[in-house]
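Work Package 3 (structural annotation) set out to generate three-dimensional models for the target panel prioritized at the project kickoff. During this period the team completed the workflow that converts sequence records into discrete structure tokens, so that structures can be stored uniformly alongside our sequence database. As a representative example, we reproduce one entry of 476 residues exactly as it appears in the project archive.
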Amino acid sequence: MAIAETQVPERSSLYNSDLAPTSPAKRTWGTYNYISLWFAMSMEVSTYMLASGLIAGGMNWKQAIFTILLGNLIVLIPLLLNAHAGAKYGIPFPVFVRAPFGVRGANVPAILRAIVACGWFGIQSWIGGQAIHAMLIVVWPQTAAAPWSVWACFLGFWALNMVVIWRGVESIRHFQGFSAPFMLVMSLALLVFALVKAGGFGPMLSEPSRFHSSREFWRFFFPSLTAMVGYWATLALNIPDFTRYSKSQNSQIVGQAFGLPVAMTLYSFVGVAVTSASAVIFGQPIWSPIELMARFHQPLIALLAMIGLLVATLNVNVAANVVSPSNDISNLYPRLISFRAGGLITGFLGLVMMPWKLMASFHNYIFEWLVGYSALLGPVAAVMISDYFLIRGTKLDLESLYRRGGVYEYRNGINPRAMIALAAGVFCALTGRFIPAVHWLFDYAWFTGFLVSGTVYVALMRRTGTESKAFAPEKA
């Protein structure tokens, strides 16, 4: 069924132009756009710090790269599965989740995803502000003594993001086409610079693992792997926000299957190698690239590197941390809250999340932030995938997604089975956070929540009976 032939109730309270199915004229994203999307979103500071955090935590470069590659191959599976509906029906994430959760219940997973995105928006804005502050020190050293300058740079970069949001989502596609190759060149330049300073790849990659036993390594590895999956667990949910613009199903599948693992592994290697080099040069691994560049005392190189950081951070912040929460917040009241308004709300909530605390150390960043929110998003992904593929066979009633009283009305707009499954997964995953005897449940938070919620959801839906009109897969 072509999207152009679909009639949706435009006067419904569940409809606005930003949430409407994408028209054929707007399906302009090809394979290259999805490859550049992942290169642009991967080549930024939080990816670098994800990799460098593993080195700072005790891994050698081979262990770190293996952990990152495996985590990204795992998260690629739910990402491609959820991407299918976006490309097939042209619908964004908050509309897609109306099928399993109900037209009103969809607000629950949408807001969970939005809260995480707001946290990420704040983190990226904080990193960008630090980069601007580091540049300011290079050209105006006396500002280093002024505490207010750090906050002024942070708020200045935050305001720049607000301007980009106001320009709209289509500006992202043009920006990515430029920023992806630019960041690749800048990353390689940073790698070469560290290579020269460290005296070659031999010394750079010679740092051994600091784990004294296999048990000690595995204790660090498994929660780290969960963090790697959690890193893109956000996009694994709202990827329909991007695939709804795809020219074809094949374009988004090929582009993403190549772009995500290659981009993440490549740029993670830069973070791993440069952090390993910092241990050789300075006697300790430095996980923050901003702090590292400041130690080299090369003003011109530092200035160019900080410009690169700003380009990457701005790009990923808008693409990964604004598109989804803007749609999610808009979904709360589509008739009154537009995409732009949702983006501005995202920006202000990002300040409330206090990103300076989330980035205080690699432990806070990886084992508290990434692993912690994966306990919320794994269950949502399980319900979405189970419903779309196992319960409905990829068939959705598009018109009912935009009106009350349709097949996705369930009980007053909420599917209680989805809510029970979601709560069960989150509860099991977070139990390990507070009960030491089952801490492994939290170490595997995304996997724990995904398995429990998916199993509970399918069992409850099949117990009801898919032949029932309320739960039957609808004809597309």
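Confidence is low (pLDDT under 50) at residues 1-5, 466-476.
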